[in-house]
Amino acid sequence: MAKNTIIPFGPQHPVLPEPIQLRLVLDEERVVSAIPVVGYVHRGLEKLAEQKDFLQDTYLIERICGICSFIHSLTYSMGIESMMGLTPPPRAQYLRVIWSELHRMHSHLLATGLLADSFGFENLFMQLWRTREHIMDAMEATTGARVLLGTCCIGGVRKDVSEELLKSVLQTLVTVEKELDEHMPVLLNDYSVKQRLCGVGILDKQVAYERGAVGPTARASGIAMDLRTQGYAAYGELDVEPMVETDGDCYARTKVRVRELYQSLNIIRQAIGKIPSGSINVPFKTKPDGEVISRAEQPRGEVLYYLKGNGTDMLERLRVRTPTFANIPPVLAMLAGCELADVGVIVISIDPCISCTER
Amino acid sequence: MINNVENITVDNLLDKVASKMPLGFRFVTMTCVDCGEHFDILYHFDKNYELSNFRLSLKKGESLPSISGLIFAALVVENEIQDLFGVKVTGLVLDYEGRFLLTETAPERPLCRVPGVMMVEAGKPAEAAEVK
Amino acid sequence: MFNAVSKSPWVVHFNCNSCNGCDIEFLACLTPHYDVERFGILHIGNPKHADVLVVTGSVNNRNARVLQNVYNQIPDPKVVVAMGVCTSSGGVFAGCYNILGNVDLVIPVDVFVPGCPPRPEAMIDGIVKAVGILERKRKGEIFPTAPKPLCKFKPSEEQSAEKTAIKEEKTV
Hints:
The complex is a heterotrimer.
Chain A: E1 5-9, E2 21-27, E3 30-37, H1 45-51, H2 54-62, H3 69-84, H4 90-118, H5 122-143, E4 152-153, E5 156-157, H6 163-189, H7 191-197, H8 205-210, H9 215-219, H10 250-274, E6 289-298, E7 301-310, E8 315-321, H11 323-335, H12 343-349, H13 354-358
Antiparallel strand pairs in A: 1-2, 2-3, 4-5, 6-7, 7-8
Helix pairs in contact in A: 2-3, 3-4, 4-5, 4-10, 4-12, 5-6, 6-10
Chain B: E1 5-8, H1 13-20, E2 26-34, E3 38-47, E4 50-59, E5 64-65, H2 74-85, E6 89-90, H3 127-131
Parallel strand pairs in B: 1-4, 5-6
Antiparallel strand pairs in B: 2-3, 3-4
Chain C: H1 3-7, E1 10-15, H2 21-30, E2 42-44, E3 52-56, E4 59-60, H3 63-73, E5 79-83, H4 85-89, E6 99-101, E7 111-113, H5 120-139, H6 157-171
Helix pairs in contact in C: 2-5
């Protein structure tokens, strides 16, 4: 019996854009188990949110994570709205869908690009990020910011988007789709890419369920779970279906993201086609009271907000369960038994967002 | 305002949790809320997008039995609660002993509302919220 | 031979405590649309290969030591670019219990880039400025600053007074 060695993977590692440490227990080149060491990005945002009032929190919450920032503030706003009994006007709901899907697209392109970078395909990384810039431009044109949009507010959205701008978004989508058609066959059919992704980091459906996997990680293992089908915001009036793959390996997770990119294109087109005119937010005078759970589908999976108000400006408790937090136990299952050289690819394939996880 | 809440106690916690998984429920997460005299610990389960919750009222100073033996995924969130609230969780399959998110130099039990412990450098003290 | 340092500086990026907003904007700088590679700047994973350290986010209790490690591993001459408002003051997270504060409590910073997050153009400007400083450090016009001791929990008033003084010095 060879003696087990423990090597630290991270916190500063070329494939990881964010600091997390995995203590890998190795038997020669094979990983026996992995122990996560987190806390490198822990700020204590849940406490800070209790010290700011609930309107300021909308913008604080965006800074949980710069990648899925809009969906964070959307989920938080939905929670507060249901506490106060507000219904945002339909136009706001559609705009929320459009921005959510733009965020999903930029996040998936980012994740797929980083995945390509993690197995050394730098050209593809660059090309995917070039495509992503079109979406960033569309977000900047419609909101004025590239990353932290700050447009979602309680009762609706802060900013309306003119018809011309929506048309230009559609124009952007045409360009994006054309570029996706060029890049995606490379990602999905290339021999060397398949060698790195197929059969690597397999997550069984049963294990995915037991360990509470969410988002593309769960869908790639055959669990049809997508909160957008529950019709929050304006998703109820649009055609959304969970994209499911059954292999559960890194390739399946990538394929789910690629299919969701096309799905998002489709959803934005539907939303722009159906968007009604009218006001974009509702005024309110009440303060949040009671407790509520609000959930939404982020690019990485389900996000859950637990909010407790006490009738004052300050919230009593704000708790965020982010998708990567739920995906840590599944990734430990994937790592057990893999080769050391595959660890980077496996970790990146769940699209980890450590800033979300540790808040 | 939260639907499907069932109150449970420390004694029947493990039985109740164990009964959920065979019914096809997915463990979502746990939430700990400081209610002054006690902690409210909520266990969230999901089936077909329907949340079903357990609420456990835990007196301060009592320890919480871990469910990570039944559901491995509870490990991370139980360690987090142990760090942030100072609730002693017993029987964790992997116990970080309060060093999961926080280090030795960080303030202890930052989310627990005990006067004197919960000091934050900038911003208002959390007691201000209750004054109104 | 040393001319190559400022003609093609290699950059290592460390996410300290950031929300990811600055990180993805910094990575966007590297990619074809903004393309800092036209200045010879190359993103590298190993601090021992690097000349420029890009830091995003503020310092917390756990990563202060890691940040100092990464900094110490970079060979001299080296420059540090701090991206985003969190690096200079803690930003929106300034009141959080686990935040120690700005990056220059732990390592000396040469360029601060403001913004939440800064625009990629501002980031490129910051890096180009840093390359200028690197060139001057190489020629010996500026002496490399010694790394500061790791600060203990809760920076005292003295230290915060000191850090404001440093900031003023840098803007000059």
